[in-house]
Amino acid sequence: MRKKLHLRYWIAFGFLALLLMSFIVWNINSGSIEISVREIMEILFLGKGEDTALNIIWEIRLPRILAAIILGGALSVSGFLLQTFFGNPIASPFVLGISSGAKLVVSLVMIFLLGKSMVASSAVLILAAFVGSMISMGFVLLVAKKVKQMSALIISGIMIGYICSAITDFVITFADDSNIVNLHNWSMGSFSGMNWENVRMMAVVTAVTVLMVFLMSKPISAYQLGEGYAQNMGVNIKLFRVALILLSSILSACVTAFAGPISFVGIAVPHLVKSLLKTARPLLVIPACFLGGAVFCLFCDLIARTAFAPTELSISSVTAVFGAPVVIYIMIRRKRSA
């Protein structure tokens, strides 16, 4: 039995890795200018090729692809942490309004700096998004203390998200500066316009945070079995819950700062990964969630760029199309098992 489980895990991770590599090549190849696989390999590994193709791959497509991988994985892991914290499979940064709170503060900071002819650095954007995430999370936690039903908590989170989004849209709509008006595309969610500075910053923040989450696999596993069991295993519940909130907020903030709010990834991917692995063990689910989120976002970004080219769809529109059915399935299954 143990050998069968190990084989399943190897197959699952191999499958995700194969999908990831396939979508990387597919994303590099797709666009207004098609580049053959042979040219891609020569450019990536030998540094040879036409100047136009070199610039397209290294300055436009590759940063965008890496951003989708890093931010997709971060959002999926953030969703897994929130689902563990609240004990609900449809908890996620987007549903609970955390992404919308981050979007609001980032928008206000960007508008303030642009109004003074200044450009916000990556670190400033992440810090602003983190502040917004923590404010929204604070409201969600206050509601959680007042209501016992998880459905009421989810509805409250959705309302918080709507309020933050409405304020953000109002501010952007009535902005005078043309650069500020262009924030509308970011506010809808997009991986476009990424550069290597953005990629380096998000890679460092995400790598450190996900590593800390992975090191918490054992207490997370104990917490999944109940607070009483976790306490008996020596887990400091208060400190542990604070750590979950902070880590999930940092990951969510990093995503929102660079790509705007992205819907349904944090809900759908953890559920799909658990179904694929047939286990909820954090030691396996956390890295699988990161891989799954990367694959999911690469796939959705490919559709967003190419489905109606040259018009580009917002990434949230595409993730909603594929993620919403998963959420509906989760709710129906929970209703049947209740």
From TrEMBL:
InterPro entries, A to Z: ABC_BtuC-like (IPR037294), ABC_transptr_permease_BtuC (IPR000522)
Pfam families in UniProt: FecCD
Topology of this chain in the membrane: Multi-pass membrane protein
Entry keywords, A to Z: Cell membrane, Membrane, Transmembrane, Transmembrane helix, Transport
Protein localization: Cell membrane
Transmembrane segment boundaries: 7-28, 65-82, 94-114, 120-144, 151-175, 199-218, 239-264, 284-304, 313-332
PANTHER family documented for this protein: FERRIC ENTEROBACTIN TRANSPORT SYSTEM PERMEASE PROTEIN, TRANSPORT SYSTEM PERMEASE PROTEIN
The family this protein is said to belong to: Belongs to the binding-protein-dependent transport system permease family. FecCD subfamily.
Protein name: Iron complex transport system permease protein
Organism per entry: Blautia caecimuris
